[in-house]
Write a structure and sequence with these properties.
This protein has 311 residues and is of the alpha+beta class. The protein has helices spanning 134-147, 162-166, 168-178, 192-199, 201-218, 242-258, 285-301; strands at residues 26-27, 34-43, 50-52, 58-62, 69-70, 81-85, 91-95, 103-104, 107-108, 111-114, 119-122, 125-133, 182-189, 224-229, 232-238, 272-278, 307-309.
């Protein structure tokens, strides 16, 4: 990335934005870890696109493959806007005379300084400026890499049901030979038909994409996430007993409930039900999965948006 040598915002307004200075490599108040300005997609076709912005760096955002943050959407210009940070730690954005323009917090953007939480709308994408740790950025990168792997469901990025036919037996065999437990989580998006009926199938697809991403972001790299069919998703957890699997399911449930769904479309709220089962020694996979499925339906019968575990 090239350093920006000029300051298009120099002038009397400098004093007015002094409180917007972002501290690079400074511990955050709660976690004690270094944090960095990061522009990340929070709504749109891909929730894991992001760009860290270091002091003196410039990131070009656009549709062109050479862009520092590429947004694949025909409504995005090849070089749509640029975002950078000066040596004082102020992050700025400058629209590059894009065809469809850029919105900043709902208003047309020419050039302006950004504060943490400010939002930019570029085509079908909404981006937000956050302060993130290196670990959080690394997680976004890993999830993005997992989504890019072949043999995945084209909508959600999760593995397809064929994984259960081709690989599950080997995973179970490894569990038995090592003496380690293996658990499964069944996930079903609550009232998904109402989402499609009330908001349209495009929103339904966005919900499935985002939910798949939330699952990938909430489990370990070795765990396997599968789109079983429709709005039904399955997570396989090697070396994981029932108690830990239930904790993971609860964490995923909270992540889905807390996701800013209203940013996809106003009024949208999404919840999911979960069923958890640890495989018994010597148990047939069909029965193991059936127990998880029964636990899922116990959650749905009990009011949904909850985790149930099988005996």
């Amino acid at each position: 990335m090239a350093a920006r040598t000029d300051d298009p915002f120099a002038g009397p307004e400098d004093d007015e934005v002094s409180d917007q200075t972002l501290q690079f490599q400074r511990p955050s108040q709660g976690g004690g870890k270094a944090v960095f300005p990061t522009l990340r997609v929070v709504a749109g076709p891909d929730l894991f696109l992001h760009a860290m912005i270091g002091p003196g760096e410039v990131v070009v955002i656009g549709r062109d493959p050479s862009a520092g943050l590429r947004l694949p959407d025909n409504a995005v210009s090849k070089r749509h806007l640029e975002v950078g940070a000066d040596e004082r730690g102020r992050v700025w954005a400058h629209d590059l005379r894009s065809t469809n323009g850029t919105l900043m917090n709902g208003a047309p953007l020419d050039e302006a300084y950004l504060s943490v939480g400010d939002r930019l709308v570029v085509g079908a994408f909404e981006l937000r400026l956050d302060m993130m740790t290196l670990e959080e950025v690394a997680l976004l990168r890993r999830v993005g890499q997992r989504l890019a792997v072949a043999d995945r469901d084209p909508l959600t990025g999760l593995l397809t049901r064929s994984w259960m036919q081709d690989e599950l037996a080997a995973s179970v065999a490894r569990s038995e030979s090592s003496g380690q437990p293996i658990s499964v989580i069944y996930v079903d998006i609550d009232h998904f038909k109402q989402v499609n009926d009330g908001f349209g199938h495009a929103v339904g697809d966005a919900v499935l994409r985002a939910t798949g991403g939330l699952l990938l972001a909430g489990v370990r790299d070795r765990d396997v996430c599968v789109r079983y069919g429709g709005e039904e998703l399955v997570v396989f957890l090697p070396s994981t007993g029932r108690a830990l699997a239930a904790e993971i399911a609860e964490r995923l449930r909270r992540a889905i409930a807390a996701h800013p769904w209203a940013e996809v479309v106003p009024g949208l709220a999404v919840r999911a039900s979960f069923g958890v089962a640890e495989r018994h020694v010597g148990e047939a996979s069909a029965e193991w999965l059936a127990r998880a499925d029964r636990a899922l339906y116990a959650s749905k019968r009990s009011g949904r948006d909850r985790v149930s575990t099988a005996d």
